[in-house]
Amino acid sequence: MAAATPNSSLHLPHIARRVSSYQNRKVWFPMPFEDRLGEAMRHTGDSFELGDRREIVEVGLVRGRRRLARRRTAAVTGSVLALATVGLGGGYAVGAFGDGGGGAAVAASSKPTEPAEPTRLAGADVRGEQLVTLFKSLLPPGTVSKERGSGPGDPSGVGKPGAASMASVSAVFDDGKGAGRIALGVSRVDPADPSSGEQVSCPAKAFVDYDSCTAEKLADGSRYMLLRGYEYPDRHEPTKLWRAVLLTPKGALIDASEWNAAAEKGGATTRDTPPLTAEQMKALVTSDRWLSVADALDVPVKTGRTSAGSLSGDVIQKRFLALLPASKHLKVVEKGNQDGYAFAVVDDGRGKSLVQINVQRGMSDVSPRGETSTLPDGTIVGLEKAPGEKGGAGVVTWTADTVRPDGFRVVVFASNTGNENKAATRAEPAVSLDELRGIALDAGWGGGE
């Protein structure tokens, strides 16, 4: 996401608008669970202000896809404006409570989990140990260790911004076939905000590499998504990440992740797939016992900020696709958009090529990347050919970055692959640098404020 980035560049749709020194790019980055949860909450639109997630819940929420950081983030590696971690990446972020994260650690247990009486938690005094007890009661038979939990009632959360905005819990679970890490977060979001819906929408494959993804609407109106993917987009390590997310009509967001390793990153895999089956993951997040936890959390506060100045993603995409060179007979095999951003994976018969565009206002203080020149009307144009940023073998990205005198910026970039995390599929991008420049300077984009 990327936005100008989902490096997140990815504009996961507006999760966190952040300014970075690279080109506006939208790219998805694997983001740790805690980051993903925090970003998702803050990202509940530009109209919501949530506290710094790193200090929100010591449990792991401390680590954070600053992605949008995207690390979503690193995320943004080169993005001028990164709209946080959800969006086209479907809010996909990988990783979950880091092993080194601070938080309320609960005494480890080497004993198999035992059936527990249904537990309902309510009130702002919900604590980490209570969350761990509830979490363990919802897991199938097995051994649980390295439990961590953090709730709004924990002393560690007192006085910290957003401390009552989310709750989280994680543990290492072993069903006898190998240990796997499982993490779950509960937060409150605005169910009507598009960014919230992105949390339960399958991400674009142009940004996220996964084996399967299903999204459905449940009988009570809740939306549910199950994504089976990988901790690392380029799969340089065999760690699998499966993610299940539930968004209720009232704005409760229950987000769980599991790995086929005892740690999300840096640990050896212990089994072929994560420990919980698809059915068990669904049962975990759809348990109504998490709803009372959500009810105890603070509701995001509106700050009055809006994204009214951003161009609609649909409008950008329509014009963008119309400006692609017709003479090349490009076939659009995948496309998507968010406010201020659009992308298309095209193929002229010689291989797939990812082409992206960011459109922003108020960017007078930004210098275009690459070799620059100034047009008679004062527009500054930057052109650049550079190696890809996601590690795909042989990938190159060509960029045309334009900033008009009124601060209206249009950045168009193309890569010689349909997914920058994967190897190049052709020698050069399907759209030339001169053609990218023409798209960026088209008079039909309008102007600034």
UniProtKB/TrEMBL annotation:
<protein>
    <recommendedName>
        <fullName>LigA protein</fullName>
    </recommendedName>
</protein>
<feature type="region of interest" description="Disordered">
    <location>
        <begin position="140"/>
        <end position="163"/>
    </location>
</feature>
<feature type="compositionally biased region" description="Gly residues">
    <location>
        <begin position="150"/>
        <end position="160"/>
    </location>
</feature>
